[in-house]
Amino acid sequence: MTGAPSVKSEFPKAYEPGKIEKKWYDFWLEQGYFTPEIDPSKRPFVVIMPPPNVTGELHLGHAMTDTLEDIMVRWHRMKGEPTLWLPGTDHAGIATQVLVEQELAKQGLTKNDIGRKEFLKTIWEWASKSRTNINSQHQMLGASCDWTRDCFTLDEGPSRAVRTAFVRLYNKGLIYRGERIINWCPRCQTALSDLEVEYKSIIGHLYYVRYLLADEEGFITAATTRPETLLGDTAVAVNPRDRRYENLVGRDVILPLVNKRIPIIADDAVDPSFGTGALKITPAHDPTDFEVAERHNLPLVNIMNPDATMNENAGPYVSLERFVCRDKAVADLKDKGLLEKIEPYPHSVGHCNRCQTMLEPRASRQWFIHTRPLAEAAIKAVKEGDITIVPERFTKIYFDWMENIRDWCISRQLWWGHRIPVWHCQDCGRLTASVDEPLACEHCGSNQIVQDADVLDTWFSSGLWTHSTLGWPDDTDDLRYFYPTSVMETGYDILFFWVARMIMMGLEDTNEIPFHTVYLHGLLRDESGEKMSKLRGNVINPTEATSEYGVDALRFALTIGSSPGNDINLGKGRLKSSRNFANKLWNATRFIFQSIDANALRSRTLQVDVIASEAKQTQGPQRLEDRWICSQLNRLISNVSNLMEDFQFGEAARQIYDFIWAEFCDWYIEFAKIRLRSNEDEPSPLPYLVNTLEKSLCLLHPFMPFITEELWQSLKVRLLRGVYPERDEILRYAQNDRRRRARNDNLALPASIMIAPYPTFDEKAIDSEAAQAMDAVIEIIRSIRNARTQHKVKSNKWIEAQVYADVLLPNITPQAKYIETLARVRPLVILKRRERRPDKAKALVLVLKQAEVVLPWAGMVDRLAEKERLIKEKELTQARIAQVNTRLRDNAFLTKAPSHIIEKEKGKLHTLEDKLERLKSELSQLD
Ligand SMILES: [Zn+2]
Ligand SMILES: [Zn+2]
């Protein structure tokens, strides 16, 4: 191990994020800070990273996930908890297969051309390259996850977990194989789960088709959006309470085009208000029809091949593509006079969420999980509070979904994924489910067994992710110590896809909840609230954003002001202001370093003994501004700790930002500059500057890890270098902490900010008297500055001021020199109360919350020049008012101009009249 990267002793003038990010990440990695120690005396904090799909580069959504999780784990690590953040990647079955198939297509090849073995080899090569790429992007973003435990869903461990979970469910009768209507993608040629269907609104048609009665005159008309499917009809159904069709139930009709007898049946599932109230029943191609058929024992006639061309059951239409078949069937129905009418019909149709092909509902033999019993346990875990969902409003959505859950189709007709661990016996036809490859059929002992060709839905393996990554089904140290995990952090859009399934599978496999808290973040939108998409061209690439603004600025922009479950709008403006914040912090720190360096030099040569003894005697802050900054800092520590506990990271970031920017930089540092420049013998502000800086850096570290480490390390070098008086005072803060001592660092400071203790709230530091007095001082300075701007007083001009401070007098008087310098007032008189009302003509009176400021006009403005300026301005304004008035009285204008132009002119007049009033009153003050 080598030591920490060097920080320059001459602190760089400009903040250049590109120069500091990689060196600190490498240092943290090398020191092993990301890998927790198992310490049975402490409760660990554990986050399992949602594994990004191996399909490509990380996008901004991943950057947000990384940032939020990194904030949590860095915070808990600083609090001294053994912290594990476990990274991984998902093989993303269908998505990856589609992508690699597209690559092959460029060379004019299909997966069948190269065969299963060669195809899988190609995907594996592609996936491992992609994983390296993805992991380096996480690292670029500063993710402090434990790379020694990095997992891939297809790794041997997680794969064995998948087989084990499958076999256990199978043996319990919770996995079955059956013929059901599933969502079939004719392009991917696989079944999809309900969650993988994307519904799109399209304008289709409703075709009214006549079914002639078989044994008498007459017909019944049924409406359909997919007329080609009538080739697979096995009945026509009506509602049993529908009077119109009462007499027809039980009769037969002739199926058009096929000329086959099928019955008219009555079933409650038919909606009498849809179309004609009669429904054609195509059990092999529609989920409702499938259920109707089960109730009435109707046969299933599948009329399509897997690629959605028609099969031999379609008679004369065999081998036609589904839409070609539709056109031909419609034409034939027309010819035979069986097509009553066609109506336009807008409806929503399922599409494959991977390749956008229109799906074909289709009866197919697939593997299913009987989810009801699993869902019941998962509902209970949330109802009883074992698992908390943040924000709370998603709890209801979770219950609604869980209570209406349908069986989960888990088989996919793909090559890329976990093979279903079931072997079919060629001799007895029965099935053997087994974790390891069996040698023979468990029923008849035949060795003529063949493994099921299908693979499992990707979400099956990700459903086990919280425990399979920790070693389940083995009883490992990791599983015993880190499971159940603490927080599952992810986007609300995959609450059902993933979170719900992890809860079901975690409970089923381990008998324990997989995590205590579900934290759902919102989705990213652009500056104007639009969804980000390549089509709109408003996508922000995280790599480009970080090279332009720095990783810390990107992370901060993704966090500040956000709240759980709410979408956030991210644009250049947020990135820029985060970058400005980093600059501001850098510059403030640079000032403090210059002061430390100058002080060290001065002390060593001149006043070591004097100041050192004085510093030692100081017990806590004495001066108002020191008391104030310590009080405000502790208030911040308390607020931020509570907010972090509450998962309100966006608000925590905002408060840290406000404190550093306004209270620390704009006020305390400005006061400190005056004190450091002064020759008076008074306590130095350096201990407070350093303490506030160090604690602020620690609070900010989880959000902006790189800049805080760079500044903290540079500060540490200064604290440990050289002999100077405030050193003891500064180190006192450090030594107060047991953990720092326990680290046995002879320099009493940890090696990195990421293992430095998180600041703790010191109630004794809260000082409301100081807060009230400083508020008044700040208000006084601000109000004088505003008055100066309003009356265009040159910035270098000193003006006279009187301040009436009432009860705050004893606290405000010592602040006179700051008010003087920062408001540029001289002479400044601070009194308790004024004797009589000041003459308005002679002075400007500013009435504030806690004080009053009187600024005599004399000396503030050159009365003659100011009067002249105001008169000129008044004349100009009057001339413009006359102009607008003329226009508004012009009939030609009033009749011709559009109303919004007229309104605009009226608005202009209003503004000008207001301005005139203001000028008049300012003029009267000068009279
Ligand atoms: Zn598809
Ligand atoms: Zn057998």
Could you characterize what this model shows?
Helix content is 46%, strand content 16%. By secondary structure, the protein is an alpha/beta fold. The longest helix is centred in the middle third of the chain and has 46 residues. The protein is globular. Bound molecules: zinc ion (ZN) (2 copies). The site of one zinc ion (ZN) has 7 residues, from loops.
Structure summary:
This protein is α/β, with parallel strands linked by helices and 927 residues long.
How much helicity do the residues have?
A: 40-55%
Largest β-sheet summary: 7 strands, mixed
Structural class by sheet pairing and helices: alpha/beta
Low-confidence stretches: 604-617, 733-747
Gross morphology: globular
Straight-line N-to-C gap: 78 Å
Q: Rg from C-alpha positions?
A: 38 Å
User: How much of the residues is beta strand, in percent?
Assistant: 15-25%
Helix tally? Answer: 28
Distinct ligand kinds: zinc ion
| Extended strand count | 29
Average per-residue pLDDT, rounded, comes to 90
List the helices and strands and how they pair.
Elements: H1 17-31, E1 45-48, H2 60-78, E2 83-86, E3 88-89, H3 93-106, H4 111-140, E4 151-152, H5 156-171, E5 175-185, E6 190-192, E7 197-213, E8 219-224, E9 235-238, E10 252-255, E11 260-266, E12 278-281, H6 287-296, H7 322-335, E13 339-352, E14 360-369, H8 372-383, E15 388-390, H9 394-403, E16 408-409, E17 411-412, E18 422-425, E19 431-433, E20 449-451, E21 455-456, H10 458-462, H11 465-468, H12 477-482, E22 485-491, H13 495-510, E23 515-521, E24 524-525, H14 542-549, H15 551-559, E25 568-569, H16 572-617, H17 624-645, H18 649-677, H19 686-700, H20 705-720, H21 726-735, H22 738-742, H23 768-790, E26 799-804, H24 809-812, H25 816-823, E27 825-831, E28 843-847, E29 852-856, H26 863-889, H27 891-896, H28 899-926
Parallel strand pairs: 1-2, 3-4, 9-11, 15-23, 22-23, 24-25, 26-27
Antiparallel strand pairs: 5-6, 5-14, 7-8, 7-10, 7-13, 9-12, 10-11, 14-16, 17-21, 18-19, 18-20, 26-29, 28-29
This protein binds zinc ion (ZN) (2 copies).
Residues 425, 427-428, 430, 441, 443-444, 446 line the site of one zinc ion (ZN).
